[in-house]
């Protein structure tokens, strides 16, 4: 399976602008720029997209872990907070902090913790990130 997205940039790093388009159409000439990345101008940025990918990947991986163990979650809600920090002359993503709130009827805390940990380690986005990954998982049922 191959998934594709394209970036187009016009101008300098600080004053230029770009747009992102994915084959699925979810991103369609979506704007990004220095101001959307390092300030608060509307648009997206690579770190936000990585956070969305990590939250989505982990949550789906956990749903599969739970299904295999015989559980059906009522809701899995995950936030991924990606940290971008200075690294020499450039920047690096140093951390992705996953925060999960889960409503899974019938599961005990130990089994939930084990399955959530397996999902975090097995998620393809976790595997590709060269960053510290943390997981704070709360079971509400």
TrEMBL record:
Q: State a single Pfam family of this protein.
A: OsmC
Q: Which organism is it from?
A: Phenylobacterium deserti
Q: Which residues cross the membrane?
A: none
Which Gene Ontology BP annotations are present?
A: response to oxidative stress
Q: What is this protein called?
A: OsmC family peroxiredoxin
Q: Matching InterPro entries, A to Z?
A: KH_dom-like_a/b, OsmC/Ohr_fam, OsmC/Ohrsf, OsmC_Ohr_Peroxiredoxin, Peroxiredoxin_OsmC
Give this protein's Gene Ontology molecular function annotations. Answer: peroxidase activity
The protein's superkingdom reads Bacteria
């Amino acid at each position: 399976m191959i998934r594709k997205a394209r970036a187009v940039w016009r101008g300098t790093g600080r004053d230029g602008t770009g747009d992102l388009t994915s084959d699925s159409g979810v991103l369609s000439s979506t704007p990004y720029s220095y101001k959307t990345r390092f300030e608060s101008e509307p648009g997206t940025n690579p770190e936000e997209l990585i956070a969305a990918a990590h939250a989505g990947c982990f949550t789906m991986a956990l749903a599969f872990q739970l299904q295999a163990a015989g559980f059906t979650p009522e809701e899995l809600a995950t936030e991924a907070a990606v940290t971008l920090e200075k690294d020499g002359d450039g920047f690096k993503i140093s951390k992705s902090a996953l925060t999960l709130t889960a409503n899974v009827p019938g599961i005990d805390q130990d089994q939930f913790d084990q399955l959530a940990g397996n999902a975090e380690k097995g998620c393809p986005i976790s595997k590709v990130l060269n960053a510290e990954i943390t997981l704070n998982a709360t079971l509400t049922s």
